[in-house]
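User: Fold both of these, please.

Assistant: Here is the first one.
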Amino acid sequence: TCTHQGCAVKDVVDNVITCPCHNSTFDAATGSPTGGPATQPLPTREISVAGDSITLA
């Protein structure tokens, strides 16, 4: 969720995650905010990759 006001974020384009509520942007690799009103990074989540499948661990 976005660290600005808790909106769900899910879309990644060109390694950038954009919040649909207030257009905060985050670096997909690090979660660091790169624009908009958010000032805190996104929380990290562990994932596992098996073939073509990506799963939250």
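And the second sequence with its predicted structure:
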Amino acid sequence: MKSVVDYAKKNKLLLLVILPAFFSYLSVIFPSGSYYCFGGDCGIYFFGAQGRDAIWHLAIIENSFNKIPFVNPVFSGEKLYGYNWLLDWLIFLLTKLGMSSVTAYFRFLPIVWFILFTFLLIFFARKIKNNPLFVMLFLLLSYFAGSFSYLLTLFHTGSIKGSSLLFPQPVIHMMSNLSYAFSLLLFLPILIILKAGKLNFQKIIHIGVCLFLIMGLKFYGGAISVFLVFTYVILSNISQEAGMIIKFKYLLIISLSVIAGLLFFYDPLRSLKTGQIFGFSPFALVHTITESPNLFYLRGLTNARYFIQAQGKIGPRLIVIESLNLFLFLFFYLGTRFFGFFYTGFLLVKKKLDKFDTAVISAILFSILLTVMLVQKGVWWNTIQFLFYAIFLLTIYLAEMVFNLIKTGRIQRLLIGVLLILSSVPTSYDLAFHQRRTSPVFIPTPEIEALKFLKKLPEGIVFISNREELSKNINDPIPLSNFQDSSYIAAFTGKRLYFAEAQTLGVMGVDYKQRLQRIKKKDCTVLEEVGYVYEIRNFPKVDKILARCKPKNSKIVFKNESVIIYSMMK
């Protein structure tokens, strides 16, 4: 740690990259969870993906860990399984030290993460090439290099505005996916250990611990990490006579770490009761690039593919079509890292790849393979998160390529290197300056009052009305109550919900459909299973279960201009 600080002090130009990155990253997450007034709409605001994902994490933090086994915050009576909850548990521990979950999630942890991430990036970059220019390039590209989605918005609208929303991207978006961001704090030490070479049992134990913890943060990262380590160990030349036995022991330790992580954090047998977590659907995600009108739409190519597939034949034409689809998918998603990907081929031809590079490139190909071939239960396109780790790893080779272009001193290569840098950052610019304040959702002041009151009431399951989302203007602040499955009530009251977050429940493998049907049918027996009904007053009467059931034991315990809270306690 001290060596990194000394290095940064000696090479102060690194601050020209680090400081803008610090403020850009924090600008994505810091504004959320605070009280604002916009055009008379006052309340606690959340911006971008924070309006869903962060609130879900807050719901877990405020509800799940107060009981053992841990409980599901949005499906009463169910345990918490099939989900990466490690970061939420760490925040829960911080709340026990007096820090609010909102402060921990939106303020404290992002700062801690950025500092640790930067230290690890510098340390790792110096392991690759101990040159200040390379370290600066690696930092710059790790922080800011995004996709080529801005080329699509330029074509369709003449502007890069909105380009950062086209594709799920880890760059800067990491602040909207803290579990992924923190998984990199464990992924980088693994890379550092492997880059140093000369494995021993102590290093393998350290790697095993990192793998176990990564599984608790991101399953996708765990899968890519274990493949990376397995490949490296298999490629390692162990000089002792018992080399094969040592390799076997190393692989056994790694395997046990991953299996322990799976069982401890996910309880996969329970999740599998509702079907396989992943399904085999080749090119499902890839096809969106040429099927979507707002992307690289190729109607003729798409129609030709459908026609050939209808014939049930796999021939040269279909292979060419799918190869083009894959090429376009990788080009637009990887951005300038696409050229870093091909740079690895150049290194292969020049025989400049060592076992570390071979393992890393194998992991990149593996993550692309999983992204291309699989879909996920609940949210089919969630497998894009496998690609996030390929994107991160490809930064190594993009930085090397740009560094080698610049260091030659030849004007043509220097210009190419500068062009690669400049073409890497537009989507990050769009996110930092255009999109960080778009799509705001908020909890209005009257609801804040209601939630504070509900939080003080005795423990009980809360029922919220099921309804379709209201039509909305994306530029206007949207009350969170407009969303039928938001978990904000659980997040801000510490009380579990009878039902919410259908999409997330599907990802976790919870069998929720029967309960959802009961709610949609306004089955009055549902009210026998809850302690409170949280009713938004301006909801249509048809959406209010109490208007139909009229239970005798319902009692109004809170009422203001926006919310009525009923107690159903017997």
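The first strand starts at residue 34 and ends at 38.
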